[in-house]
Specification:
The structure holds two protein chains of two kinds. Chain A is mainly β. Chain A is built from no helices and eleven strands. The radius of gyration of chain A is 13 Å and the shape is globular. Chain B is about 0% helix and about 50% strand. In chain B, the strands form two sheets. In chain B, strands 2, 4, 5, 6, 9, 10 and 11 form a seven-stranded mixed sheet that branches. The chains are: A mainly beta, B mainly beta.
């Protein structure tokens, strides 16, 4: 059974204080690892897809990396508008997405 | 493009009532999905469809039904609502079902069953 675990559950940062979110996965035949951002009362918004170990992708202050067991979402010099819940999901041989429970990020001004 | 739209945004049902959650996408995607999201939990797949006329069960299908008569629409039917169905429901779509492509999500329907 595919499993995705995210840590920490919640993270509070001061504006400008860089940090990383973790996504550990156990998936049979990884096809893709996806990062989404979810604002309160809204649907998940796609950020990145990673396909193989060693791959990295960047978007503004966010950088996602992938190893054979986990992915990290690095947030550099975050701003209050980066506050959201960040979801990690994997697709494997079953071709369906398995989601983690998310990391709730709060960036204080 | 509006993307994926869902109606209603909020709904309160009494135990035993029925309702249909509507989902429409304008991206001409063949694949559509219904998820539920409970507090502190990841999204769970209820049903999915690979094209008009074809649907299949996901991880948590009990108490729900779906149909797919057109490419654009994928309604979710709740029969005999129960408190355990209180949740936020998201519809999503993707261009393929290979697992390599991202899914695009609607804004959600918050359902409370009392």
């Amino acid at each position: 059974e595919d499993q995705v675990t995210q840590s920490p559950e919640a993270l509070r940062l001061q504006e400008g204080e860089s940090s990383s979110l973790n996504c550990s996965y156990t998936v049979s035949g990884l096809r893709g690892l996806f990062w989404y951002r979810q604002d309160p009362g809204k649907g998940p918004e796609f950020l990145f897809t990673l396909y193989s170990a060693g791959e990295e992708k960047e978007k503004e202050r966010l950088k996602a990396t992938l190893t054979k067991k986990e992915s990290f979402l690095h947030i550099t010099a975050p701003k209050p508008e980066d506050s959201a819940t960040y979801l990690c999901a994997c697709s494997g041989s079953a071709r369906q997405l398995t989601f983690g429970s998310g990391t709730q990020l709060t960036v204080l001004p | 493009n509006a993307g994926v739209t869902q109606t209603p945004k909020f709904r309160i049902l009494k135990i035993g009532q029925s309702m249909t959650l509507q989902c429409t996408q304008d991206m001409n995607h063949n694949y559509m999905y219904w998820y539920r999201q409970d507090p502190g939990m990841g999204l769970k797949l209820i049903y999915y469809s690979v094209g008009a006329g074809i649907t299949d069960k996901g991880e948590v299908p009990n108490g729900y039904n779906v149909s797919r008569s057109t490419t654009e629409d994928f309604p979710l039917r709740l029969e005999l609502a129960a408190p355990s169905q209180t949740s936020v429901y998201f519809c999503a779509s993707s261009s393929t079902g290979t697992g390599f492509n991202e899914q695009f999500f609607g804004p959600g329907t918050r359902l409370t069953v009392l």
